[in-house]
UniProtKB/TrEMBL annotation:
MF terms in GO: methyltransferase activity
Annotated signal peptide: none
PANTHER family: ERGOTHIONEINE BIOSYNTHESIS PROTEIN 1 (PTHR43397:SF1)
Record-linked InterPro entries: EgtD, EgtD_Methyltrsf_superfamily, MeTrfase_dom, MeTrfase_EgtD-like, SAM-dependent_MTases_sf
Pfam families, A to Z: Methyltransf_33 (PF10017)
Record domain Histidine-specific methyltransferase SAM-dependent: where: 14-313
Keywords from the named record: Methyltransferase, Transferase
One of the GO biological process terms: methylation
Protein name: L-histidine N(Alpha)-methyltransferase
Cited NCBIfam families: egtD_ergothio (TIGR03438)
Gene that produces this protein: egtD
Source organism of this protein record: Gemmata obscuriglobus
Amino acid sequence: MTSTCASRRTHDQFRADVLAGLSRPQKRLPSKYFYDAAGSQLFDRITELPEYYPTRTELAVMREHAAAMAARCGPRCLLVELGAGSLVKVRLLLDELVAPAGYVPVDVSGEHLRGAARELAADYPGLGVHPVVADFTRPFELPPVPAARRVVYFPGSTIGNFDPAEADDLLGRVARLVGPGGGLLLGIDLRKDTAVLEPAYNDARGVTAAFNRNLLVRINRELGADFDPAAFRHRAFYNHERSRIEMHLVSAAEQRVQMGGATFAFRAGESIHTENSYKYAPTEFAQRAAACGLRADATWTDANGFFAVMHLTAVP
């Protein structure tokens, strides 16, 4: 498939997902579409905010235990990072890996990914870096790199953005991608007090609000919609019953939005559900992964029990 055809297919899928999501009784947009170039840059800013604990906590866990994680990955492994972003955390792992066969960052934001991959390749001249622009929630092909073992690296608690059935599907596909004996190293955000959780998604500087609204800016630019992003306010809260943070864009007034010949009416106070972030207990997640063909081998956490990095092995 040519890059032009792939781009057209991605655009068509984006349009179909938006139209379907806005047609639901509870309007919803897939969070994977946050990450155009502007969205990726905004998320990088979010990770540096004082309220946003996940990134700095995961980095601290990585710094302390990267050698043990690399030992679990093994020598000559092909490391495949899903939702690679800015390639910051993976450097801690790469510094400890023994003779890695290669590194494959996978991300849907092509421009952002290629720039980050060039920088990393310059810093690791002996490492084969093979960026793949793809939606990792759908099947994609790995480059044919000989390796002793395949290991998927999935940091940042992104697994929490998937509803339980979707998370199970992704875990099963990862197990098949790495094959029996292959590995998965992933970050998991753990359950904790609401006083810690909610400010992380409602920062005082409004960066998360801008990140949320940028999804509407992208839909306007790429799909020809006429959203007024300023007419929607950011809302994020912890849903105790479902153990998840929910992010919404709430219509500030009664309004209509047009896109592709369709008109979508909004009541004042009606929301578009844009993201979930599920929080887990390590034992609960290990049980879920086991049902998907992945056995938990090791878990590393911070002193506060805010965040965990877990290694799992695919079993036949």
